[in-house]
Amino acid sequence: MRKVTIDDLHLKGKKVLVRVDFNVPIESGKVADDTRIREALPTIRKIIADGGKAILMSHLGRPKGGFDPKYSLKPVAEHLSTLLGMSVKFAPDCVGDEVRKMVDELKEGEVLLLENVRFHPEEEKNDENFARELASLADVYVNDAFGSAHRAHASTEGVARFLKETAIGYLMQKEIEYLSKATSNLEKPYVAILGGAKVSDKIQVIKNLIDKVDAFLIGGGMANTFLKAKGYEVGKSLVEEDKIELAKEILDEAEEKKVTFLLPVDCVIANKFANDAEFEVVAVDKVKPDWMILDIGPETVKRFGEVLENAKTIVWNGPMGVFEFENFAKGTFEIAKILAEVTKKGAITIVGGGDSASAISKAGLANSVSHVSTGGGASLEFLEGKVLPGVAAIRDK
Ligand code: AMP
Known about the structure:
397 residues, alpha/beta, Rossmann fold, 2 domains, 6-stranded parallel β-sheet, 13 helices, 17 strands, 34% helix, elongated, binds adenosine monophosphate, Phosphoglycerate_kinase_sf, Phosphoglycerate_kinase_N, ATP binding, Phosphoglycerate kinase, glycolysis
């Protein structure tokens, strides 16, 4: 690891400002899924154990640049208190005199969570003065928010410029280590499984991976645009008409470069976009005009499985169908099962993206793959070979 990590720092007595990713779902004033909070615990516990003063900051949702109780991190402070088994203090803002006073009163081993940084529009603008104000609260900056590392915001990037000591936290370190395996020194065959709603979101990923992977397995809504590009009629399925030409170019490039590019051969079609829709499994050339493709079919799962069976490195981003509807989740869950099996046999399997991560935990297999990334956009940009601003901002060793 080239970056300074939290293990390289002396934290005792220091005010440690940590950017965490506590962007968690809140329902009726309670944390509905605490995965991201639990992922940040090792870094927080390290600061407590070393006698540092932990000042945590995060965004939550997309508030319109002012205080909004709906996006308050207060429920997170309460939940974190329970997880840590100690009282976590909560500041009503992330900058200002009151916050500074709370920071100054912090004792060694105590934890303070600041209010949502996005209540200030300066956060997303990466405003220099705002970043400087955040930095002035602390002696050391630690970035452990992998899920936000692809964004150059004040709390993820700007702040690092105003503190001499900067480091990445354990979660960030774990994410970078696993994702680096997928981009360098990886064992082949290397297979990318891509799904989700749109081709447009993943075009850059395909382009950047085409010289690296041996095979692409394409499912989900994005497969429809490729099927259409190959001349299939896909009825009322989600298709990006303006991306059909691009899909053709990608298919040609894959053929030229001898990269296996598998599309569904069969699919589950439905007469409406709902879980209680009528549905049928058909070959991709038999999609009914008024119906839509909502999942990959069993023959596709089998063919994808044959490729995955021999793979040594697999990255997966995007569900194979509308897995939120039970009747159209099968393809996604079957792929999750195959990933768990090949992991047991020694393949490195990396699942990235919010939806794929939630699909794999819904399938009960989150612990059966090598790595589930906490970052959707961030893991994709990393796999595309881009430098993440939140990582770049941290000093090298
Ligand atoms: P993304 O955020 O791009 O990874 O897309 C995830 C979303 O794609 C999920 O909410 C799925 O329901 C949706 N999706 C997957 N397959 C299809 C499909 N065949 N038609 C429409 N939406 C789909």
